[in-house]
Design brief:
Blueprint (H helix, E strand, L loop, with lengths): L2 E5 L3 E6 L4 E7 L4 E2 L15 E2 L10 E4 L2 E4 L12 E5 L3 E7 L2 H6 L4 E10 L2 E10 L5 E3 L1 E3 L2 E3 L12 E4 L5 E3 L17 E3 L5 E3 L10 E3 L6 E5 L5 E7 L3 E5 L8 E8 L18 E3 L4 E10 L1
């Protein structure tokens, strides 16, 4: 495992080759850390990449072409060593290739490339999924960055806000105790009622675990201080995203998670290629996506 550094006049990034995971976002002038520090008392990770599944599988398994496979929650990429590909003063890329071991749990020949670009106070996170096999490939991919909330030690998270670029009520799904989405018609889903896009953070917001927000309801989510001044904003084109902090732990961070895919629903009984919000690649094709993190 190695740690790579990207630095400019504004920010310093740390990226680990293990999982190609972003592990630090430091404001140079203020010497202030914006990314969660990975304390295992709350959650040991910081910003893992979720691949080839996002969330949990029903019965922790899936079937594809008559065979049954098992994958852990969020897949395996976050727990594997990536190879550094190329590195400039402002950009770095990592690559993970399929192996005989990955084929045992995920029967597709793939390459996953993850890149980070630093421009002033903006971090661009880039993904490339390449189908190296001869047949169709199915996958999900997602982000899981955890940001300090509150940002300043001694302040209270319940004085902070989440800000959405959509002033309409935000509909969301919850997960059950097996990590599966509890599907409901849109009109019956739970709702976050915002005021001019701002949602005051309730101490019980994550008592039932993650909030799953589907159907392109928002493409920009910020954390804001007690004066409603955003200090970190995540921009994305993903059709759904999650909000999460560990249930019942009063953890000092909140995750804003753009997803191309999600956990299975509790009533899902389909095959892997039928997964809700999943992605499909023809042989030789590649999928590209990106999201940005703005540090204010």
């Amino acid at each position: 495992m190695s740690v790579q550094i990207l630095k400019n006049n504004d920010l310093t990034l740390k990226i680990s080759s293990f999982g190609a995971e972003l592990t630090g976002i430091t404001d140079n002038a203020a010497n202030r850390e914006y990314l969660w520090k990975g304390d295992p008392a709350y959650w040991k990770r910081r910003s893992p990449v979720l691949f080839p599944v996002v969330g949990s599988l029903k019965n922790q398994s899936y079937h594809y072409r008559g065979k049954v496979y098992s994958l852990p929650q969020h897949g395996f990429a976050r727990d594997l060593e990536f190879t550094p590909l190329r590195n400039t003063d402002s950009e770095i890329w990592f690559r993970l290739n399929w192996t005989k071991e990955t084929l045992k749990v995920y029967p597709f020949e793939f390459a996953l490339e993850i890149g980070y670009r630093l421009t002033h106070r903006r971090i661009t996170v880039m993904w490339k999924v390449i189908n190296q096999g001869l047949g169709d490939m199915f996958f999900s991919i997602g982000a899981h960055p955890a940001f300090m909330c509150p940002l300043i030690e001694g302040q209270s998270q319940s004085d902070y806000y989440i800000f959405f670029d959509n002033d309409a009520p935000i509909h969301y799904l919850l997960v059950n105790n097996k990590g599966l989405a509890v599907k409901k018609p849109y009109s019956e889903q739970a709702v976050l009622n915002t005021e001019n896009g701002f949602l005051k953070i309730d101490p019980h917001l994550f008592d039932q675990d993650a909030l799953i927000i589907e159907n392109n309801q928002s493409h920009s989510v910020s954390l804001a201080d007690s004066k409603k001044i955003p200090y970190v904003t995540v921009h994305f084109d993903a059709p759904l995203f999650g909000l999460w902090s560990p249930a019942g732990k009063n953890a000092p961070f909140i995750c804003i998670e753009p997803w191309y895919g999600r956990c299975d629903s509790s009533d899902f009984n389909g095959s892997f290629e039928e997964k809700e919000w999943g992605n499909h690649l023809k042989a030789g094709k590649q999928f590209e996506a990106a999201y940005t993190i703005d540090i204010v």
